[in-house]
Amino acid sequence: MGTRGRTSAAELSVISGGGIETIRRPDPPIELTEDEGEVWRVVVNRLPADWFPAETLPMLAQYCRHTVASRRVAAMISSLDEECAKAVKDGAAQGEVVLGSAKALDRLLKMQERESRCLASLATKMRISQQTQYDKSRKRGAVAPKKPWE
Fold it and tell me: Other CB atoms closer than 10 Å to residue 122's CB: what's the count?
């Protein structure tokens, strides 16, 4: 039999049924490098704790790997640009150095494009990109002009 009368505010403020369930954020897998693990922690800590179910963790690991690889390719492109500029400035064997650098730069830029495409795809699939979190109801844009007949 239940209790008689109204339930007090004190009784309503107590959680019954064993307490609060906590959701742990996933730790980075041991096979990730230190840099990749740092990317993992940044992404996981930025989103709600239950954002990544177990079946998406391999995809998140790949996202972290591609992020670090993309940074490395960008660093190689930067150093190649500096090297090419120095060779042109010094005037040493310009034709061969510039041609070789141009081919290497082209390969690096293609690598960078592949990494970018893969990152965008993974981010969209895991719903961590701006595109997937866009709310049309909060769109700030130009107000449509009033029609003459209105």
Answer: 20
Domain limits for position 52: 27-129
Structure tokens at 126: 């895991």
Instruction: Give the position of tokens 């660093």.
Output: 75
Residue 37 is classified by DSSP as H
In a domain, 102, yes or no: yes
Per DSSP, the residues of 47-101 read S-TTSS-GGGHHHHHHHHHHHHHHHHHHHHHHHHHHHHHHHHHHTSSHHHHHHHH
- Whether pTM > 0.85 for this model: the answer is no
- Amino acid residing at 121: S
Q: Which of 70, 68, 60, 65 is nearest to 117 (CA)?
A: 70
Establish if 142 belongs to a structural domain. no
Grade residue 23 by pLDDT with cuts at 50, 70 and 90: confident
pLDDT at 52 over 70: yes
Classify residue 9: in a domain, yes or no: no
Q: How confident is the model at residue 131 (pLDDT cuts 50, 70, 90)?
A: low
pLDDT of residue 41: 95
Number of structural domains in the chain: 1
CA distance 111 to 109: 5
